[in-house]
Amino acid sequence: xxxxxxxxxxxxxxxxxxxxxxxxxxxxxxxxxxxxxxxxxxxxxxxxxxxxxxxxxxxxxxxxxxxxxxxxxxxxxxxxxxxxxxxxxxxxxxxxxxxxxxxxxxxxxxxxxxxxxxxxxxxxxxxxxxxxxxxxxxxxxxxxxxxxxxxxxxxxxxxxxxxxxxxxxxxxxxxxxxxxxxxxxxxxxxxxxxxxxxxxxxxxxxxxxxxxxxxxxxxxxxxxxxxxxxxxxxxxxxxxxxxxxxxxxxxxxxxxxxxxxxxxxxxxx
Length: 269
Ligand code: SAH
Description:
The chain has helices spanning about 55-60, 100-110, 130-135, 155-160, 175-185, 200, 235-255, 260-265; strands at about 35-40, 65-70, 85, 95, 120-125, 140-145, 165, 220, 225. By secondary structure, the protein is α/β, with parallel strands linked by helices.
């Protein structure tokens, strides 16, 4: 029923061209079994954005994952495809309409397994973290709704059981940057995205610790030398030093992180 909404697109500005090559962002998922990010946004031209660069971009071109971007405007009301209205009860700004968002959600979620999380980016949400990135990476994909203006009509959040997820304790003008950050953190965990899988095991948060300091050539710079142990060739000593540095840094900077917490968070979901 809502699938006919996009075809009623008589108005001039109803469908905006996306900037990225079309084959990178198929209208419908082309490859079943390929990890798929669905994004609902008023700024489709902002995608793939930085996700089209470097390792995530190469993986996108290699079909390690796929990106399906849906322009919320297509589901807008009337000749002007309105998507928002003034807040009930008064106040500043505009609120995204539940009916408009509902049509977009039903369109993109058709045929999508319920194990694919339905998420709205929101400063009110659960804080995004490495454990959530791991959870999403282990699923067939994720559907991300990018808010704008004052946010989304509460009834849409309630009706579809949308999970709100925050990038951090600050307010962005829209969800697109948050969505790209969350997708970057998730996609790099998919098999085949990073060249060197071993680097995943040692980096920050993977074992509840921040990463040890890193050095590379030259051996001396501005009177500062690389710690001798790293040049010693003694791998056991190097591993011990890195572990100790990781623990020292974590205690100093993030006493809230503990191995137990992280291991537990990683087991959820
Ligand atoms: N009035 C809202 C903020 C709206 S900001 C409030 O006070 O909670 C507009 C949109 O930007 C939001 O709907 C959300 O999609 C996005 N956004 C803003 N800050 C964000 C954050 N920290 N994390 C994720 N998304 C955010």
